[in-house]
Specification:
single chain; 194 residues; mainly alpha; two-stranded antiparallel ribbon; 6 helices; 42% helix
Length: 194
């Protein structure tokens, strides 16, 4: 259903190959008699209302794709504009996004994801592998909520190019690879102690 009913968003995202990214995450009340098309329609309608509310009118496919990566990168709403800034900074300098969630999504599509990302996974040949392919992946990798859509639309202004988990549900941001490597080492110490 989500793959085939792209007519629901063809005016917003003519290149969409599925409804991924446009099924707005929310609590819905459906009856047993409602069809999959009606349920998807309700979720897309909520997406449209939210998009209008936040002013998302141009570059919808790209903005939703970015928002979907942001959604998967952090569950901390206050960090989402900073995460967005990192990815936009990387795009502006033509640096690969290196977004682990997009690699995972590609593996999920291929049926090869094992539950953890390993070094060899970033070598896989998938259009969603943002380590190997520059720019955004070909489409959304999740259904972003309002704060992720807002972050993609209005990222923070920063000079950060990297981030890594701090082990407590948030991230440490870095301007240089050296600073990032120190943050990674700190995270590994925390993870190793668990």
């Amino acid at each position: 259903m989500a793959k085939s009913d792209t007519s629901l968003v063809s005016d917003l995202a003519p290149e969409a190959k599925s409804l991924e990214g446009f099924l707005f995450p929310n609590t819905y009340e459906f009856t047993r008699t409602e069809s999959m098309h009606e349920m998807a329609g309700a979720m897309v309608k909520q997406f449209r209302q939210t998009a209008t509310q936040i002013g998302l009118t141009a570059d919808v496919q790209q903005t939703v794709t970015m928002a979907s990566i942001i959604e998967k990168e952090t569950s901390a709403p206050e960090e989402r504009p900073l995460v967005a800034s990192v990815y936009y900074n990387r795009l502006s300098k033509k640096i690969a996004l290196q977004a682990d969630p997009s690699v995972i999504y590609g593996e999920l599509l291929q049926g090869t994801y094992t539950g953890a990302l390993h070094h060899q996974d970033i070598q896989t040949d998938s259009s969603y592998n943002t380590y190997r392919h520059p720019g955004l992946p070909p489409g959304p990798i999740a259904n972003p909520g309002k704060t992720s859509l807002e972050a993609a639309l209005r990222p923070a202004t920063s000079d950060y190019f990297y981030f890594v988990s701090n082990g407590n549900g948030h991230h440490n941001f870095a301007r240089s690879l050296e600073e990032h490597n120190r943050n990674v080492a700190k995270f590994r110490k925390i993870a190793f102690k668990r």
